[in-house]
Amino acid sequence: MSSTAKVQLVDDVKDPAQQKNSELNKPQMPLIIGGLIVGAILLVYLLATQNSVQSLLLVIGLLVGYTLFHARFGFTSAFRRLASVGNGKALRSHLFMLAVAVTLFAPILAFGYAFFEGGVSGYVSPIGVSLFVGAFMFGVGMQLGGGCASGTLYAVGGGRSVMFITLLFFVVGATVGAHHLPFWTEDLPAFEPVSLATSTGFGYGGAWIVSIVLFGLIAWITLVVEKKKQPPKMAPKPSAAGWKRIFRGSWPLFAAAVVLALLNALTLMTRGTPWGITSAFALWGSKTVQFFGVDVASWGYWQGENAAALESSIFADSTTILNFGVILGAFLASATGGLFKFSKITGKNATASIIGGLLMGYGARLAFGCNIGAYFGGIASFSLHGYIWGIMALAGTFVALYLRPKFGLSVPKSKDSFC
């Protein structure tokens, strides 16, 4: 097939207005003003009722959401492109993001750099049955639900209607997963957490070298796969020129990778742990069922260090504030680009969203996090569990490729297919 005959891939989160027009849309000023007012009210409330950390995290979350939407920086689509047609460009942007992240995380974790008292610690989690099962479930779920944890949040902010269903059942799945977690972690086999830095004797310098070598090896493998399969390329998106591109149009994936790594490092130094998403979903769901009389406090998940979060306001939960910021940032980015528009919900995509949300929520609790907390945060923290999470989520993606057509969801099958 000639190069001119190859049809290009498009992103997971589709913007109908962007697809119909090659030119940029006009900013939706009423929505922008409304979003800024909501953000200002929330910021003032946090300044008045919470510590300064929460206010800073809201701003960081807003910048994360803005970046995710502008670059359409997806994890779900990156895994699916590689699994279905062998296109590894988006996955290589992940590797570049991780390379920047480990470069920033290494000195922060080694020397305990933090903006506030309390120190810093990475996400280093056990390796056991729960990790393998949970990450696999998440991989299937994100392909059915139409987005990963971060993708769900920024798609909601961008007005993709069906993702509100995914988010709702993501919360349900995370709550059930929190209730069942002691069985998976205490009654089934597991090994102690393994850190490339502290468990191996490499130190953070050695762990950084190992990490960079691994990223390079994985990138090389994706290039070999591409050379063999000759997949279609990712479609370019409309964008403004010069500095206006910050506000209008698409950002390059690799630029967004740098920004996301920097923002994750800022999160680590601000609250003492990396960026995470799904622990807040378990909190929201648990507080909801507690309101209806369920004795949530007796669950093993809410014992020990998690007990304080259950007893406090959700506005005291740093992950919740980050999530609110991501949604608001994506909303502002979509409105600035003139792209905010509610999309159509059908019976099939609603059913897929329900199943996908449940699988992701439950799987994230079992796997000690999602594509952000376990994959991004875990690998950036030099934890072996982050790499295993990625492998199992990719395995789940392969399985989901056979399930997506049953729900009317597209799957590229050849070089001239759309993603």
TrEMBL record:
Q: Which residues cross the membrane?
A: 29-48, 54-75, 95-116, 162-181, 201-225, 246-266, 321-340, 352-376, 382-403
Pfam short name (any one): Sulf_transp
Judging by the UniProt lineage, the source's domain of life is: Bacteria
Is the Lyase keyword given for this protein?
Answer: no
- Topology with respect to the bilayer: Multi-pass membrane protein
Keyword ATP-binding attached: no
What is its subcellular localisation? Cell inner membrane
Task: Specify where it is mainly localized.
Answer: membrane
Which key words are in the record? Cell inner membrane, Cell membrane, Membrane, Transmembrane, Transmembrane helix, Transport
Annotated Gene Ontology cellular components are: plasma membrane
Protein family per UniProt? Belongs to the TsuA/YedE (TC 9.B.102) family.
Name of this protein: Membrane protein
